[in-house]
Give the backbone structure.
Amino acid sequence: MQQSRQKKTEPELQLWEITAPKRKPAQRQPRAGRPVQSIRRRKAKKRRAILIRCLVLTLFLLFLAGIFQLTGLIYRSIHSGKHDDAASVWQKVLPVQSDTANPIEKPLFTVDLLEVNNYSRPGTKLKKVKNIFVHYTANPGTSAKQNKSYFANLAETGERSASAHFIIGYEGEILQCIPLEEQAYAVKGRNNDSVSIECCYLDADGAFTQSTRDSLIDLLAWLCGEYGLTEQDILRHYDAGGKKCPLYYVEHEDEWEQLIKDVGAVLQDASH
Ligand SMILES: [Zn+2]
């Protein structure tokens, strides 16, 4: 009996011992099912996050490349060609002038711009240039600098509206006081499609000195080249409204014609 009892109890113990480890994996399975799914989900999430990061990085690199190219383009547009001052930079960037390269050498001039104001530099864009007007200051013996100061003071006094893109002194010095992309107050009704040059002089008859005349020819020829104009597009203020400006060249038609011919000769030389 004792033996049979022992025999009975032994298999019970064995059964428990055998079934016990069998139960464990059975118990684990339902628990392990969920983590496998969540691990997969987490992995997918991770993959998505990596993909998004890669995409963002690619976009950022493309953006950087774009910026780099744009900077290079601007740099090249500024530094290409023979022009190197601030005014020329704008001439390159803005399509006011003709696209073809100017065959005429740019004369030396000082850029001393007026502040934008209602009486001498309105800041209005100059979108096209059909003519170049020549003026005289109507103030004998005054220098280019003095005439520029006069234009600048109009902002304070407001006594009248007047200005020009360039002033040529009686010693031949050229001063630019309005950018070529903006309108001057020089010729009533024509400020929106022309460039103006004021000339200083010494004698009461308004005749220009040889230096002024030489600089004027150089500047006129260069401007013609910039805008694709001919010497026939150069006018006296007188030709648009009848004002006796420039006095000497209104009273001496032949001298005016000679001046135009001289500009024509410079243009002709450059085209060969
Ligand atoms: Zn005038």
Remarks:
- Confidence is low (pLDDT under 50) at residues 1-20, 22-28, 78-95.
- Helices lie at 2-79, 86-93, 144-157, 210-227, 247-251, 253-271.
